Amino acid sequence: MRIVGGVDTDDVTVDLTVAINEFHTTVYGTALQIEDYRDFRFEKVWRVSYNDAEARMFAFFSTRYFLNLLPRDDARICLPILRSWGIELHQVSARPDIIHRHTQRFYEIFFPEIFHSLHFSSNIGTSLASSSRTKLDILRAINADFYVEDNLEYALAAADDVEIVFLMDQPWNQTRQTLALNVIRVDNWYSILYYLHQYFF
Question: Residue 127: is its pLDDT beyond 60?
């Protein structure tokens, strides 16, 4: 049986927001904790204009905080296991154009031969991503059976087409809304490994 999985990048395989907060604390003197990031739109968290937030993110991409990022430990352990089970994995990332090459290199170094392909989508939070394809478009194209995401909006959009959507629990994806039965909130990759083994094997 062919099983296909889509995997988001930031705050799924790498803890990007932790690095962004460290950068922002150092450069702008803020004292925010990860728990303060309750909105996916950083201009709301930092209380700056949309343009200022984009400029800060653009600057972040050229710093050591971004360039020296390492994968999440649980992702490094669990993704090779999923691949060993014969699962076809695809990266589905909304990262902006300016860091596509770095992202490709990141996966070549840390996840060699794990992902079947790397796809870049449009991004609801920034104009820095020029692709016209949405994440849902990509998930449909690869016929994904499951998807791992931290953005609530993307997760809910995927739930109508994808059999299982794993929502990585984060401050910015909390909601009072009752999630669809096929959207499973998880804390880490070990939980995903458990659920997938129970469901498909």
Answer: no
Range of the domain at 51: 16-67
Number of Cβ atoms within 10 Å of the Cβ of 97: 12
Please state, in angstroms and rounded to a whole number, the distance separating the CA atoms of residues 165 and 13: 15
Structure tokens at 177: 């809304």
55 alpha carbon, distance to own chain's centre:
21
One domain, residues 95 and 153? yes
Contact 53, 186 (CB under 8 A): no
pLDDT of res. 96: 84
35-81 pLDDT tens trace:
999 998 999 999 999 999 999 999 999 999 999 999 999 999 999 99
Q: Give the total number of structural domains in the chain.
A: 2
76 and 136 together in one domain: yes
For every residue of 2-61, DSSP letters joined together read --EEEE--BTTTB-HHHHHHHHHHHHH-----GGG--SS-HHHHHT--HHHHHHHHHHHT
Enter the tokens of residue 73. 């430990």
Q: How far apart are CA 67 and CA 52, in angstroms?
A: 21
Tokens of 29: 């003197």
Sheet strand arrangement including 164-168: 115-120, 88-93, 4-7, 146-149, 164-168, 183-186
pLDDT for position 35: 97
Q: Is there a single domain that holds both residue 92 and residue 188? A: yes
Structure tokens at 61: 């991409």
Sign of CA dihedral 139, 122, 179, 81: positive
